[in-house]
Amino acid sequence: MALYFTSINSGSNGNCYYVGNDNEAVLVDVGLTCKEVERRMARLGLAINKVKAIFISHEHSDHIKGLTVFAKKYKLPVYISTPTLKSGRLVLDAANTFSLSHLQTIQIGDLKIAAFSKFHDAADPYSFTIECNTVKVGVFTDIGAVCDRLIHHFKDCHAAFLEANYDTQMLQNGRYPYFLKQRIMGGHGHLSNAQALELFTNHKPAHMSHLLLSHLSKDNNDPELVEMLFKTVAGDTFVKVASRYEETDLYYVSADQNAAQQYVFRPELYQPDQLNLF
Fold first, then answer.
1. Is residue 276, in this structure, part of any structural domain at all?
2. Which of 82, 144, 153, 262 could be bridged to 188 by S-S, CB 3.0 to 4.6 A?
3. What average pLDDT values come out for the chain (278 residues) when binned by 10 residues?
4. Single pTM value for the model
């Protein structure tokens, strides 16, 4: 069974990632308004009733902005750590809110979601992998430093969202105040292009078919620059920058290398009763 995945949005203005199979899906973070997530999923032909749970990485507003409304409207379970819930001052349905912990694995239908701690300046931040029938997609953003846990999970992934937040020279020479530059580069902020590239170059598994470069800084990075930087060493791996302004195409990957492809939804090809297939 294949996994479908897309970035609904990726950046400091909002983050939301969709991963699922033919029957169920999960969202990692809801950092856009409920209405905007609905609008973008509709453009992709993604049925919201396939979403069975939401997983929250941490409490920064660009990851939880639309969570309360979206979860309440669709009566979705939310998996979030207790410190994140408290720090985010979120009001969620207690009966449908479930605590996350380091190295916890949650089964959602045929999807297995694994959570593990990461370095970031938040109360209790997590990265995630979503797996179905040995196919695995990783969501690795908002990370201050590469650790052994990240390397271990990255090496298992068939596809990944990987943060490449900033170009070091652009950040150092840019307009940000000194304290903010130190926060970003200080080991609990974000991954630079160079750090992400080193992870990709040294630990990319042979079966990785897709890499979506994520959470790029608007002021301290260049999407064309970073995409070409990774493409020069990507080999057969498809590389794309996840936009901070719109959803990406819908992609899918399976355990069969030959089946790893881009799926582009074209609503004009379907009858009304065939829409929202995924």
1. no
2. 144
3. 94 98 97 98 97 98 98 98 96 96 96 97 97 97 97 98 98 96 96 98 97 98 97 97 98 70 45 44
4. 0.92
